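Input (structure):
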C-alpha cells in the first residue's frame, strides 16, 4: 500500500504512513471506460443495417443447418442404415480369420426391432440389395487367376459366414437365396477360371475348349464368343450353306413342302452337330440355325393342320404333328406348343367304321382295325370285298350319330385284266354314293366323302360278276374308313 501524501510504500494493512505519519486510506481504482470490441460492434452495426429479407435468409439458413444436423443424427441412428454400414464394413475388412463383430451388431438390431415388421422388411431389402451388389461386383475383369481366386474365396466365405451365423433367418438370408447367390458366384468363378485357362493355353483347340465354357453371364463372354466363332467359321459356313440348300423353296410353296423342308433341316443339323470332335451345337450360330428351324416347324405345322382340318383329316393331322415332335427337343417351348396343338385336335378325331356294330355281312367280306400294307402302302384299318362273281355287302349301325363318312378305295394287287366291279353305299336304303366301274387299269376316283347325317344303318356293297378262275382271292378295299360327328 502506498502513501497518498509522500508516496512511501507501507506494509499491507498499515493504517499510518511509516515516513510521514499520514493516515493511510484504501485506494480506489480509477473508473476507466470499458474497452469496446470493435469487431462485435461493427457486426451489430452491420446487422442493424441489413435489410429485412436478408435477416430472414440468415435465419432460414440457420434453421436448415440445424435441421440437417438433426436429420443426420436420425439417419445415423436408422437401423437400416446401420445394417448397411455394418455390411459394408464386414465386406471391406473381411479376411479368412476376420471376426464377426458386425454380424453380432446386425443380430442385435434385429432383436431390437423384432416387433416392427416394416423395419425388418426394410432391413431384409437392404441386405438383399447389398449382397446383390457383391455378386454383381464379382463379375468383373481380373489381372490373373490368383486375384480371381482371392476374390472368390472372400465373397463365398462372406456368404457362408452370414448363412451360418444367421442360419437362414428370414430377414437376413434364407437358404434358398443363399443357394442362388452362391451358385451364381460359383458358376461365374468356373467360367472366369476357364477364361484364364484359355489365355494360358498354347494349343488353339484347347483355347477353343476353354473359351467355349465361358458362360453368357460372364463379362468375358463376348471375347470368348469371338474366338469360338472365328475358330469354327468354316464349319459354321458349311452348316449355313446346307440349311439354305434345304430351304430353297418358293415363297408360295405348299405348307406341307415347307414343313418337310424344315424337318429335314433339323435332321441335317443333328447329323452335322460334330466336326473334328467339336460340338457345334454349343455355338451361337448353330443355336440360331436350330431355333429358326424349330420356329418354322411350329409355324408350318399349325398352317398345314388348318388345311387338313378343312378336309376332316384329323388322323393325318395327328400323324403330321407327331412327325414334327420327333425332331424337336423334348424340353423346348416349341415341343410343348405342338403338344398343346395335338391335344386341341384330339376331340376332332373320327371314329373308325370297323369299330361300329356290324348288323350283317355276306361271305367274301371282311374288316380289321389292324394295319395292312397294300401295294407297298401302309393303312391303319380297312374293309375288304372279294370277287365272288356276285354282289357282296356289309352293314354297320351308326345310330344317327355322324355327319360325314370318308374312306379311300384301293385296288388289291395282281388283278386279272378283265376284273371289274363297283362300290355302292346306302344310308337306310337310300343310295348315297356310287363309284362307277372299277377295273385294273382304269381311272379311279378313289376318295369317298359323303353326308351320313341322320343315317341309322350304313350298307356298303361291292357289285361284280367277276369270279376268279380256280382258287384265288382278289380284293377291293376301303381303307381307313372314318366317321365324323
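Output (sequence):
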Amino acid at each position: 500500500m502506498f502513501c497518498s501524501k509522500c508516496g512511501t510504500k507501507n506494509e499491507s494493512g498499515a493504517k499510518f504512513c511509516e515516513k510521514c505519519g499520514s493516515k493511510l486510506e484504501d485506494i480506489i481504482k480509477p473508473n476507466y471506460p470499458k474497452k469496446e470490441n470493435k469487431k462485435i460492434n461493427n457486426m451489430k452495426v452491420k446487422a442493424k443495417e441489413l435489410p429485412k429479407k436478408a435477416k430472414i435468409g440468415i435465419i432460414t439458413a440457420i434453421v436448415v443447418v440445424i435441421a440437417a444436423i438433426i436429420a443426420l443424427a436420425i439417419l445415423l441412428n436408422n437401423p437400416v442404415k446401420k445394417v448397411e454400414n455394418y455390411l459394408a464394413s464386414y465386406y471391406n475388412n473381411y479376411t479368412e480369420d476376420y471376426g464377426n463383430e458386425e454380424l453380432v451388431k446386425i443380430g442385435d438390431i434385429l432383436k431390437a426391432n423384432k416387433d416392427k415388421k416394416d423395419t425388418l422388411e426394410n432391413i431384409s431389402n437392404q441386405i438383399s440389395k447389398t449382397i446383390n451388389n457383391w455378386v454383381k461386383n464379382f463379375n468383373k475383369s481380373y489381372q490373373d487367376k490368383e486375384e480371381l481366386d482371392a476374390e472368390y474365396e472372400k465373397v463365398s466365405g462372406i456368404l457362408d459366414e452370414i448363412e451360418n451365423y444367421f442360419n437362414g433367418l428370414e430377414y437376413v438370408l434364407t437358404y434358398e437365396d443363399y443357394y442362388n447367390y452362391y451358385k451364381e458366384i460359383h458358376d461365374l468363378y468356373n467360367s472366369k477360371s476357364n477364361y484364364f485357362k484359355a489365355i494360358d493355353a498354347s494349343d488353339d483347340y484347347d483355347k477353343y475348349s476353354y473359351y467355349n465354357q465361358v458362360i453368357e453371364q460372364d463379362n468375358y463372354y463376348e471375347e470368348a464368343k469371338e474366338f469360338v466363332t472365328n475358330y469354327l467359321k468354316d464349319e459354321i459356313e458349311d452348316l449355313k450353306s446346307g440349311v439354305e440348300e434345304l430351304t430353297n423353296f418358293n415363297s408360295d410353296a405348299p405348307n406341307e413342302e415347307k414343313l418337310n423342308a424344315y424337318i429335314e433341316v433339323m435332321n441335317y443339323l443333328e447329323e452335322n452337330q460334330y466336326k473334328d470332335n467339336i460340338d457345334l451345337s454349343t455355338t451361337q450360330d448353330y443355336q440360331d440355325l436350330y431355333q429358326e428351324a424349330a420356329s418354322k416347324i411350329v409355324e408350318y405345322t399349325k398352317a398345314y393342320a388348318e388345311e387338313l382340318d378343312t378336309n376332316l383329316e384329323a388322323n393325318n393331322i395327328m400323324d403330321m404333328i407327331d412327325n414334327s415332335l420327333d425332331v424337336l427337343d423334348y424340353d423346348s417351348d416349341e415341343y410343348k406348343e405342338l403338344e398343346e396343338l395335338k391335344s386341341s385336335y384330339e376331340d376332332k378325331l373320327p371314329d373308325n367304321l370297323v369299330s361300329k356294330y356290324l348288323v350283317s355281312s355276306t361271305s367274301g367280306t371282311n374288316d380289321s382295325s389292324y394295319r395292312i400294307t397294300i401295294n407297298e402302302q401302309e393303312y391303319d384299318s380297312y374293309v375288304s370285298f372279294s370277287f365272288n362273281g356276285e354282289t357282296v355287302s356289309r352293314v354297320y349301325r351308326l345310330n344317327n350319330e355322324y355327319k360325314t363318312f370318308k374312306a379311300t378305295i384301293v385296288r388289291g394287287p395282281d388283278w386279272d385284266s378283265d376284273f371289274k366291279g363297283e362300290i355302292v353305299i346306302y344310308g337306310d336304303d337310300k343310295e348315297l354314293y356310287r363309284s362307277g366301274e372299277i377295273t385294273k387299269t382304269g381311272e379311279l376316283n378313289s376318295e369317298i366323302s359323303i353326308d351320313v347325317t341322320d343315317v341309322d344303318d350304313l350298307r356298303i356293297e361291292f357289285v361284280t360278276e367277276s369270279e376268279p378262275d380256280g382258287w384265288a382271292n382278289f380284293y377291293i378295299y376301303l381303307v381307313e374308313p372314318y366317321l365324323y360327328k
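Notes: The chain has 14 helices and 16 strands. The radius of gyration is 49 Å.
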